[in-house]
Give the backbone structure.
Amino acid sequence: MSFKKPFKLLKGIYSYRDFLSIIRFVDIIKILTSTKGSYTKVKLKNTAEVVFRNRNINDLIVAGYVFLKKFHIPPFSLPDNPIIVDLGSNIGFTIIDYKLTYANAQILGVEMDRDNYQLCIKNTSAYPNVTVLNKAIWFENGTIQYNSNVNNDSYSATSLSSDKSTNDQLIGIESITIPDLLAMNNIKKVDFMKIDIEGAEIEIFKKGNLDWLNLVDSMHMEIHDRLEVTPVTNILKKYNYEVIPDKKHWSAVFAKKK
């Protein structure tokens, strides 16, 4: 690797220099420059051991908003033994942070992208009562596709019938609805659900069966369309949620049953 490439990456994370409060500088350099294998395991300052993809700035950014910014931790308390469903688990950092915050939590994670899923398994395998599935959350069961030719935390899912392109970057994946996901895992009540599924939430709220909202006590959801924030939050209010705008992200909300 030439010197220019790691220098460019270092420059790119300058605005995330607060990372130094959670990860050693030498480990950042190792992640960004290592040519030995695909992954680097490091120990964060919160004592968690995590695996990063080598030369991948996106994983560092995700670590920053999860472990430093606490992006997905609710501003209200959860039960001592919460059941947490993490839709859009990425590479597992959010699950780790939930386990560090709620040690007795039972967590079900779902991640659509195969590469992210495999790294998520590596990152969460040491934690008890954690299950992660490689599926896509959608408004109907079946098979959908997503474009893999984007960064690792921004995949756009579509039904097979809606995109007739021959783009070889499109990957098929089994889809499942939230009601069937909960039923399959014998979950009758969810204390907290995180929804960060890169736009699929819009399709779910427009076309899906929303009875599952009766089973979810609280949630954090990122809404990936500025025009849909109000319609989605209005639906949540109809299901007796108090909606709390997330001050850390313009399109994210917390919601808790009244």
About this structure: Residues 57-68 form the longest helix (12 residues). The chain has two domains: 1-69, 72-257.
